[in-house]
Automatic annotation (TrEMBL):
Pfam family, any one: AMP-binding
GO MF assignments: ligase activity
PROSITE patterns: AMP_BINDING
Keyword annotations: Ligase
Source organism: Nonomuraea angiospora
Name of this protein: Acyl-coenzyme A synthetase/AMP-(Fatty) acid ligase
Domain AMP-binding enzyme C-terminal: 412-482
Domain (AMP-dependent synthetase/ligase) ranges: 18-360
């Protein structure tokens, strides 16, 4: 029996939209180009035919080092249509990491854009297994007709890489089916025929199935920018009338710490999706004070199981500090050290659903450690309420042990952030891994404010128990964050706080 093309990620994400609403605008790129669903689909088809002409076909692994957001969208979708497996490389990796990841990936083809030509020149001779090198500017086929569709359902679609905080980044295998399940994110969130999703260059890697795929699958207009830092955000949102956003709370700490946003029209924003790190009550208050009409949602997931939980936190639907309930078709449980399910107690977070990875490529032992039957168990701690609301407490390795009591840093950070003049805070235990630690707190003042460490210590002595009070307070110009190509701050790097200030 012939397989339905709707089991193919590229066809279901894009071609279906081109058949449904061919004249609707699908994508706007840096205020320079705009494409309808039909036009974008034809462009992707040209890329697909060009790839086939270069010998890239079903099952072939292709390393993709792309930083131009439009090219990311076109190439990833083209490779999905023809059944090639995309190794989604991070253009911000060190050259050595990039080389080693490609060498371990099994890729025999490599596609890149003009922004990374220099890097490609540095690694090319050290990757003899890669026999086909493709400049994306060469990928312009003669035909814009639909290519032969290949790759369906449980066939591998892509390798998306973990952050690689220890050792080489692990290659997470996602299939056409798991990526389509992730693409249903916006079906659980209010949207309309004029919804506009804005984002920046973070769309390579897992950002692609978590951002591009869902926007197109839901029939939105996707606004792609190269820079999504606060300054460009303040230009693009009013220009494009952006309605939907997906970011981390640190972005708003940076955006609202400066007065530059105050006279900018941000009234088009309807939905703000926040995840990747805890959302404090203070930050939610600041966001709602600036954007009172926007619905604020929290989400939780990992590269291995993206966007598992979701919930609106600004209207009482979901308790603040939680990540909501599992999305339709997904499941969450908490287990104790014996692997038994517990409710209302701290334990390990287990995630399950059709969006879950199939495993780590080439790492069967590591896969066996985290896949327990249908569940993925990735090392995060949390609690689950009797009515199914998940509260994420943090990574096991981030917890601070003082006075014989474990504390997650976010508890201390939230108390500090509520104090006047504090833009951002980061707490860590020092020394790392000790059986008894002290609390090191780093704080950043808001624009126009100054902070005094001794006064902060006195204020926190009134609000925090002894085992959570900071032993050392450092007032810093900025806190270390990951660089994720968004132009704004990435996730807070608590380990770097310890390294730089401890």
């Amino acid at each position: 029996m012939a397989r339905s093309p709707y089991g193919n990620y590229g066809h279901a994400i894009l071609t279906a939209g081109a058949l449904r609403t061919p004249d609707q605008v699908a994508l706007t790129y840096c205020d320079e180009q705009s494409f309808t669903y039909d036009q974008l689909n034809r462009n992707v088809n040209r890329r697909a035919h060009a790839l086939l002409e270069k010998g890239v076909g079903p099952g072939r692994r292709v390393a993709a080092l792309l930083n131009e957001t439009l090219r990311v969208a076109e190439v990833y979708l083209a490779q999905a249509k023809i059944g090639a497996v995309t190794a989604a490389l991070n253009p911000y990796w060190p050259v050595e990491t990039l080389r080693d990841v490609v060498a371990a990936s099994g890729c025999t083809a490599f596609v890149y854009d003009a922004t990374v030509e220099g890097v490609v020149g540095q690694i090319r001779n050290s990757l003899p297994g890669v026999t086909t090198w493709i400049d994306v500017r060469e990928l312009v086929g003669d035909s814009d007709e639909e290519p032969p569709v290949s790759g369906w359902y449980d066939d591998p679609l892509a390798l998306y890489y973990t952050s690689g905080t220890t050792g080489l980044p692990k290659a997470v295998v996602h299939t056409h089916a798991s990526s389509l399940a992730t693409a249903q994110i916006w079906l659980d969130v209010p949207r309309g025929p004029d919804s506009v999703f804005g984002t920046g260059a973070i769309i390579w890697g897992i950002g692609f199935p978590a951002i591009v795929g869902p926007a197109l699958y839901a029939g939105m207009r996707l606004v792609l920018e190269q820079d999504w830092g606060p300054a460009n955000f303040l230009r693009v949102v009013p220009r494009e009338r952006v309605t939907h956003l997906s970011q981390i709370p640190s972005f708003y700490a940076a955006l609202l710490a400066s007065p530059e946003h105050e006279d900018v029209d941000l009234s088009s924003i309807q939905v703000i999706m926040l995840g990747g790190e805890p959302l404090t009550a203070t930050m939610l208050e600041r966001i709602k004070a600036r954007l009172p009409e926007a619905g604020v949602y929290s989400y939780y997931g990992q590269t291995e199981a993206p966007y598992t939980c979701m919930g609106r936190v600004d209207d009482g639907t979901t308790p603040l500090g939680s990540s909501g309930r599992p999305r339709t078709g997904n499941a969450v449980r908490i287990t104790d050290p014996n692997g038994e399910r517990v409710v209302g107690e701290v334990g390990e977070i287990n995630l399950a659903g059709p969006h879950r990875m199939t495993g780590y490529d080439g790492l069967p032992e590591r896969t066996a450690e985290v896949l327990r039957g249908e569940w993925y168990v990735g090392g995060d701690l949390g609690t689950l309420s009797p009515d199914g609301v998940l509260r994420v407490l943090g990574r096991r390795e981030d917890a601070i042990l003082k006075g014989g009591v474990w504390t997650q840093p976010v508890v201390i950070e939230e108390a500090v952030s509520a104090l006047d003049g504090v833009a951002e805070a980061g707490a860590v235990g020092v020394p790392e891994g000790a059986s008894e630690q002290e609390v090191l707190l780093a704080v950043v003042p808001r624009a126009g404010h100054t902070l005094d460490a001794s006064k902060l210590a006195l204020a926190l002595a009134d609000t925090l128990p002894a085992h959570q009070r900071p032993d050392h307070i450092v007032v810093a110009v900025a806190l270390p964050h990951s660089q994720d190509a968004s132009g704004g701050p990435g996730k807070l790097l608590r380990g770097k706080i310890r390294e730089l200030l401890g």
